[in-house]
Amino acid sequence: MFIGHFGTGFAGKAVDKKPSLAALFFAAQFIDLLWPFLLLAGIEKVEISPGKTAVNPLDFTYYPFSHSLAGVVFWGLLIGAGYYFLTKNRRGSLLMGGLVVSHWFLDLLVHIPDLPLAPGLELRLGFGLWNSALLTVITEGVIFTGGLWLYLRSTKSENYKGHLSLWSLVVFLISIYVMNFFSPPPPDARAIGYVGLSQWLIVAWGYWIEKTRSTEQGN
User: CA 18, CA 192: separation in Å to the nearest integer?
Assistant: First the structure.
């Protein structure tokens, strides 16, 4: 899953308006922001396997520290606690931790059974929506559109830059999502890692959007 995670980041603004959009993106996509570093360091592993699913040519052979349920809960507690330490915002800290954990459950919908429960356990889960391109697009599209709608209800543009910054990101995310369906498989695991690092730019983009949009009153 890709744009669906950013959809939950957008939706977070309807739960608590204090965390910035960059922070919400960071939490919602955290384990995919962490994974490229572990991949490039050789700690976690992936193989290129065209045809593995209808949507994704990657075979996630070993990623228990970033993508196991136990690992995600650990990272969620860490991010939530860190946010509370910095802001003393209890609701925001619960939201941030919840967004981190939500990533695993959204991945559970689309992945084939490759998501581990904990490091060292052989059991792997996944409902396999990636076996159907149509169901994958519908599921991610609904989550992304719903999250964006909630974000638009919770914020307003201060000027034309607010519209430009937000909708340029929306177009960019959708474009990347569509391109992934038609692009050839990556050449190797390191290329995947370097591409994965580019997601940090989307988090930074969220910071820019936050500067051009204001939060509606109430919460």
Answer: 33
Task: Report the distance separating Cα 15 and Cα 185, nearest Å.
Answer: 38
Domain assignment present for 199: yes
Q: Is the pTM of this model over 0.85?
A: yes
**At which residue do the structure tokens 């509370």 appear?**
84
Structure tokens at 149: 């709608």
Question: What are the DSSP calls for 54-105, one per residue?
Answer: SS--EEEEE-HHHHSHHHHHHHHHHHHHHHHHHH--HHHHHHHHHHHHHHHH
Q: Is residue 7 part of a domain?
A: yes
What's the pLDDT score for residue 11? 97
Query: Contact 63/43 with Cβ under 8 angstroms?
Result: no
- The vertex-161 CA angle with 32 and 12, nearest 5°, equals 40
Residue 110 has pLDDT above 90, yes or no: yes
Q: Which residues, at least 6 apart from 158, have a Cβ–Cβ distance to it below 8 Å?
A: 212, 213, 214
- Could you tell me the two tokens for 16? 């608590």
pLDDT in tens, 49-101: 999 999 999 999 999 999 999 999 999 999 999 999 999 999 999 999 999 99
Residue 63: closest CA among 105, 109, 104:
104
Structural domains of the chain, count: 1
Boundaries of domain holding 94: 3-210
Distance CA(42)–CA(39), nearest Å, equals 5
